[in-house]
Amino acid sequence: MKSPRPYYHEFAWAYDLLQTENVQARVDFIETVLAQNGIAAGSRVLDAGCGSGRYAAEFAKRGFNAFGVDRSPELIAVARGRDSGAQFAVADLLTFSPRKMFDAVLCRGVLNDFVTDAARRSIFRQFATWLRAGGIVVLDAREWTRTVARFAENPLHRRTIDLPHGRLTFESETRLDHESGRMLIHERFEMDKGDETSLTENEFVMRPWSAEEISDYLDVNQFRLLGTGTSYGESDAVWSDRIIVSARKSAGNHKRTAGV
Predict the structure, then answer these.
(1) Cβ partners under 8 Å of residue 186, min gap 6
(2) Could you give phi then psi for residue 114, rounded to 5 degrees?
């Protein structure tokens, strides 16, 4: 899952400026799902692919033992700067091996970056490895049919941010490869500091999911599907292509010995 995206590295400092969803409202939604399944404050929660750590930090503020992991050192540096009480680590999700199991795992938006079948199988095996029996996974991913509808209508996303000493313009253009079921994305970052302008561009691939594919991987790894939806309880056109899934790890799975 190698990612050269400047979004996660060179421009990690701008991540929170570009990602403007209502984190508190979404954590409200997730916390309700967890509470309905007996997971409350004090429980161990992992944010897998935590980005700049906003969700893990919010869970820590609410009394959860929150941990975030991401493969970007730059994003983790931003996360650690929050001083929220959450713990953070730099690691690849496909090889991440914590010493203790978690009561809940969140995985938001990251699944689209797993393009190969082997990687997609592996990440769901990781969910099962990280979670105790009866633990809950809450994930969201782009759903292919909804993604086609969204980007066929508007393939271009643009956002301009005024900074104390200039302006950052971010642009993303998406083409759809219907044969492979993949998104071919071109990103562009333009920094205007008045007396100079710099341009950074990159291209990468994402692969959306189907509800059936997610359900199959959950079933293979002994998860019971709890629910699916298309929002975290809010109306957000930017997230019109997402599917949100919650599932419980079946009891009786092998447990690892807890470490320090």
Answers:
(1) 172, 173, 174, 175, 201, 202, 203
(2) -90, 100
Q: Which CATH superfamily is domain 6-144+209-249 in?
A: Vaccinia Virus protein VP39 (3.40.50.150)
Q: Which residues pair with 166 in a beta bridge?
A: 163
Rounded CA separation 8/50 (Å):
11
Nearest to 185 by CA among 131, 244, 142: 142
- The DSSP output letter for 67 is E
- Nearest by Cα to 137 from 33, 207, 28: 33
Give residue 230's Cα distance to chain centre: 15
Q: With a threshold of 0.85, does the pTM exceed it? A: yes
The CATH number of 146-206 is 2.20.130.10
Residue 236 has pLDDT above 70, yes or no: no
- For 140, the 3-state DSSP assignment is strand
pLDDT tens per residue, range 192-214 = 998 899 999 999 999 999 999 99
